[in-house]
């Protein structure tokens, strides 16, 4: 009897494991967190044919909550968030108004609610519903607003707890690489038993010398992934890895502390070349089998830096952390060296955004004159990381061949600076010599009273796409700003009594402008059609030599029908993020 009972128990456990594994394969994408130590998991798969997402919610039956709100936030705001509200018996579709009230939608688009078993619930949502209060799902990053309620739920403030999570909803499944355990090694860079600051936001930098065994000969990085100290998942927000360009073994750059500390070694400013990034929820970043990133060898930087962004919303004290990045590398070199190239706008106040703008676009170019320095057969882009600061709302990079837009490298219509992610591409983008790339960022400065300058500070702005590609090119930076002479002509035309021989800086001249609607429109036209000041830089940070006058390059022009996209007009099918 006992053996029969034991067999029955084992059979039930085994059956549950099989079911769990099957569901995980059927729903390959997920976000997860915990509320009061109760695990919350939302899994999903993408039905491209039917243009819908099938969600699976794991909602523990022992949890003291009656309902879970799964919200889709446009840019990380609570107001106007679209949501599916799931109880243990039903679901409804709604939105959060400006007073944080939870309002049901006239059209219900969270559909096909099914209880799979106790604590596991299925529902579906179309990519686009044509409801102006609904979120339009796309292949860029998304912000989930997750809230749990134990009692009434008329307002978001009634929630027991609220969290933001990040993911790409419309993801494509990319098979994992085959590991070669006989040749691969791993190395860790990051924190070691440090105390996390009680401040809500803090950035810690960890600079380490690369081991001599790595520097001795060339290796290839084939994978890197984030490691987060167990229990600190709610605080470790994202991490970035930088090489310290030009650093030598004889230098002493080792450092551990605030990234903004004045006591940082002066030469650590060279730790600026991004080679990797990790954000909460991201899995390992794997290089394609054709290529690997160079790690070690002659003239390779001797120091590496990991920057960790901690987000301590509860101001917790005494939290010990040893999070960081694990790099997997091999001495079995792959066919191609992978490279990283910066596209977008030059870090300069020539690229500045006027205040009071809801959607001000700026575009940086990688012109044909620069892509002519690509390898003979061009390059293949296999991953991409879009980046802007606090006012960036929509970012995308377009690819042009013979003056015609042939596709996009990446797009983030719901961009948030709080989630830095390298997106792997299932279909690599082949950029040939003579093609050009344009990276556009759309900024919202409605709450600003002064210009937002292009620059490095968090309150300045950037517009960058770090593309990962192979084979490595002579070009490391391919970015632009408006031509200085053209910009100076704009200032002379719009600032009263400004002489041609003035000594004012560009930022000072921007502040001298009378910000009228016509001046803003003139500036926008200037950015759109003016000649370019190009940074077509090599690995030494210098302009590539040739016949081109890089300070006065004509902006590439489209032809044969111009720029178009095969999409439904935003006025034909309304969404909340138009």
From TrEMBL:
Domain of life: Eukaryota
Family statement: Belongs to the copper type II ascorbate-dependent monooxygenase family.
Residue ranges annotated for the Copper type II ascorbate-dependent monooxygenase N-terminal domain, each copy included: 192-315
Database matches in CDD domains: DOMON_DOH
Family annotation (PROSITE patterns): CU2_MONOOXYGENASE_1 (PS00084)
GO terms of biological process kind: dopamine catabolic process; norepinephrine biosynthetic process; octopamine biosynthetic process
Residues of the Copper type II ascorbate-dependent monooxygenase C-terminal domain: 337-488
Signal peptide bounds: 1-20
A Pfam family per the record: Cu2_monooxygen
Keywords: Copper, Disulfide bond, Glycoprotein, Metal-binding, Monooxygenase, Oxidoreductase, Signal
UniProt GO cellular component terms: extracellular space; secretory granule membrane
InterPro entries, alphabetized: Cu2_ascorb_mOase-like_C, Cu2_ascorb_mOase_CS-1, Cu2_ascorb_mOase_N, Cu2_ascorb_mOase_N_sf, Cu2_monoox_C, DBH-like, DOH_DOMON, PHM/PNGase_F_dom_sf
Keyword set includes Metal-binding: yes
GO terms assigned for molecular function: copper ion binding; dopamine beta-monooxygenase activity
Protein name per Swiss-Prot or TrEMBL: DBH-like monooxygenase protein 1
Keyword match Metal-binding: yes
